[in-house]
Fold this sequence. Notes:
The chain is of the alpha+beta class. The chain has 13 helices and twelve strands.
Amino acid sequence: xxxxxxxxxxxxxxxxxxxxxxxxxxxxxxxxxxxxxxxxxxxxxxxxxxxxxxxxxxxxxxxxxxxxxxxxxxxxxxxxxxxxxxxxxxxxxxxxxxxxxxxxxxxxxxxxxxxxxxxxxxxxxxxxxxxxxxxxxxxxxxxxxxxxxxxxxxxxxxxxxxxxxxxxxxxxxxxxxxxxxxxxxxxxxxxxxxxxxxxxxxxxxxxxxxxxxxxxxxxxxxxxxxxxxxxxxxxxxxxxxxxxxxxxxxxxxxxxxxxxxxxxxxxxxxxxxxxxxxxxxxxxxxxxxxxxxxxxxxxxxxxxxxxxxxxxx
Length: 313
């Protein structure tokens, strides 16, 4: 049970997939507003120049060369040379600028500001705390990664691939985006040690992580709050209170969410029959599983499995 890699388990079940948007060649006093779009996790790696990133609910962040900005939850954002400059919608920039060879050129004057822009998408029907608890803006600064050569290497490799523009670049960069995102969440988990709120804080907590490991390793077990509290080495009341404060939902609610996440992944990625999927996800019968699944997602598991959208999210 202790060998379960919870973050990998979550990201695999969310079916995290990444894509490269484009590179930028922004010049002069630019300010580009990127609209809210679905629940994408957007990335901006500054390769050359200087750039500010602004998102609602966070202080503007200045990026230097080699810095990476991560904007979770598809929120709108502004990329600019000066945070005081009025912004122009990305759609207008696409019309007025030039897009060629995967590079969006816009503006005149000093530059270029070269950004490598991409995104991660995931199963949007799932609101897992690992995504929901992320801050509005995360900035990974290369200058701060001296003690983490693995993370620094990933970011540098992204920049090198962007400059090389060789065969397979898009595929390689897509995989690197996923790697960098998971490394960032892992770093936040370590940094959260001692905090009392957030999914990363729960993972960093010895007692909470025991309960999470149990639910992830054996979701088919009919766990009770008392069972999970004993696994965590805490009293029932203290465990329930601490878990709810850290994760944002009570233990059994989290377990239900996790079971349904696993079910969605198994429906798409396995050939298991409905009875086996129900059993693996902690349901005693197919009808009870189907009712819970439809209540959560508005569609039954059979219909979801047959849906084209289930295989493209």
